[in-house]
Amino acid sequence: MDRRKFLRNGALFGCSAAASPLFAPIAFASAPWDNRLVVIILRGAMDGLDAVRPVGDADWAGLRPTIGGLPGPDLTGFFALHPALAHLMPLWRAGEVGFAHAVSTPYRDKRSHFDGQDILEAGVASLTGGQRDGWLNRLMQTVPGISAETAFAVGREQMLILTGAAPVSAWSPEARLRLSQQTRSLMEMVLHDDPLFRSASAEALAIVDSIALGSEADDVAADLADSPMMAGVTANGDHIKLAEFAATRLRGETRIASFSIGGWDTHQQQTGGLTRSLTALADTILTLRAGLGPVWEKTGVICMTEFGRTARENGTRGTDHGTGGAMVYAGGALRGGQVVTDWPGLAEADLYAGRDLLPTRDVRAHAGWIMRGLFGVAGTVIENAVFPGLDLGADPGLVL
Asked: What does the longest C-alpha to C-alpha distance in the chain come to?
């Protein structure tokens, strides 16, 4: 049994499921790069047509007669931002947030959350080939010197995107693991004659002890308290805690972080539900921006979802599972202030299967170009190892 399996199987004596290092809503990995990458998975299928509204398309308003609402801040004259993302406009004007539209994974037609999310996190064209590791983990497998000691796990949800042969670990806000010295001594006695579990338990306890974050946590707290960007942020909820913790680790040795935000499945009454989710996303990005401090200039943030939603609203003032959607990206190392797209149009003849925004670019290509620009990973490695079978295509110019 390897270290990750030991942790996932909860082989820590006397620990509850909520307190043991099992699952991964947030995961980290150290790497020999100076730049940082944060990948946020938006679970439930974000409606990209509502988040970044193509108000300049003559067919858009007719497809969304009740949920379109008043447009938010103008972005390009053609695209406008959802009002719930208005707090990101200072980052837009600074070139620190941008969007890629009419994108998707290769997943088509069945529109299952489970398959769509697995394909997104596995980074493959389909699940028929048996690929069960994640693309961020495969990225790390291509780099020598990845250290398990600088990646740790305590939490509730395992993320496929970081599952694989490279050593990674995780943390979640509710993690509480305080073992008395007597318990530790008992573990040492029980496991003394079993070298496999003795070694694994020692690693697990070292990971737990490493959660004391030291000066980086103090720096993040100070920057969050001083940042004017945090004035409109509601500083509660798991998404804020995850962003704060990610910022703490990324200011130290961590180079890659990934976590998820749920709540994007808006089949009915979308106006309220999407407003809440987009507000949480904006608050997460602003928390990363403030918490990372000077490290923000070396950071790229990618926000990806499993598929888009239907172009037309449904009878319950929501949208159903679709195909093409939008990717949100941010960070001081990326070129924001733009909506990158080969826009297909929303006329009846332009829709995919007569119902969805037509994807004109593989969202994996955008992620691949960001990794190439941030970390210097060769294009052939991205196309063959990280995203098998991907054609990167032309550089979209997302990295400064």
From this structure: 73
